[in-house]
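Let's inspect one such protein example.
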Amino acid sequence: MIRFARLFLLLAACIGSVPPIRAQTQGVEQLNRFMTLYRGLDSEFDRYQLTTSPSTLANQATNFWIAQLAAMDASFMGRPNDALLYFPIVTLPPKVLPDPGHYRTENAREWIIDQAKNHRIVMINEAHHLPQTRLLTISLLKPLHDVGFHYLALETLKNDGKNQMPAGYPETETGAYTREPVMADLVREALRLGYTLVPYEAANGEFTQTATRELAQARNLATFLSAHPDARLLVHAGYAHIAKTDAVTIAGARTMATDLIAATHARVLSVDQTELIPMSKASQDAINAKSHLVKEFSVSEPVVFLDRGNGAAWSSKPGAYDASVLLPPSPADVLRPDWLSLAGARRKVYVGADPCAELFPCLVQAMMIGQSSRAIAADQFVMLYPSEDRAPLFLRDGVYRLRYTNAQGQVLGERRIDVPHGLGDLPPARKLF
């Protein structure tokens, strides 16, 4: 189990919102007991069922922390809209927003490609429970590789000196967020294009304080850059780690990007995706701000805002980020939004729920033929009710093994699927009990 306790505790510090000290103290013992149980579970499906159970979330002493795990687990299980329901942190939008009179929009991907020519390092952040914040990086992999960015640094990768992908694809022990299928797709696509992956996370003992972790991450990247003086580096990290001045700190500590620039003097392009998205559906002010911007600028793709006078990019935190990206809205009235197609790279495939035999929740996973049982699914979705049996999977062209699993971990059936041609004939679906 990859340091989940530290990861979600530090997640709150990155965002800058924590419950009162008294509430933290009251919940520490209960939280420790919960995390012992959580770590002992064998599968993502088991952990999802634990963190999202009503009895777990009803505990006010631990809800703030556990709900963060519930949000990530929901995203892992292919339910990104549910992640917004669980995430407990309320964030406020920037006080001053761009307006159409002074700003115009530009496609974020195209702007970053143009700006990258003048930088050695490009940093993009994500909200760990929102896979939509991984799409921009996926779209940038090829064009940035074409102009010389051949190294991809991922915060999510386990960093213990070992090869975390001996089989050449992400498996359960590769990293933390690589267990989510969109992140796993990002990794697979990077490897296909010829990127060298760079793990840089702090060691276990360096998680004791935020400043220690940030400095360790920066040191690890600086060491890599020193050993590869001609390398150009794409960095995909979480939240405020990519803030490159003291205008933004994490729990009062300087960020990884700030420490890295101080150590290397490298030119860093820092692009934020998290300041203009609501972290939860409770963040009504943030929801209203985003809705206002989407309407005012007719946003249907990731965009940056450029000053109509001098062309400068608008940033929610000037100096810390070179630009802030506004993502198009994700429709809340669907189980699986179409952005999961990754801009058309994956097809929408309806697979049905017959092997579930009315046993819900039921997890359907599309596993790539020829990969091990520890491989991360190309896509997966947990159906909670019979009415959800028409929710699609999103798959690149290829051959897959569909696997249906019930809440007790029993495999209910398997069948082959050929994309784009539909369900194959061999082997047929089979029930195991």
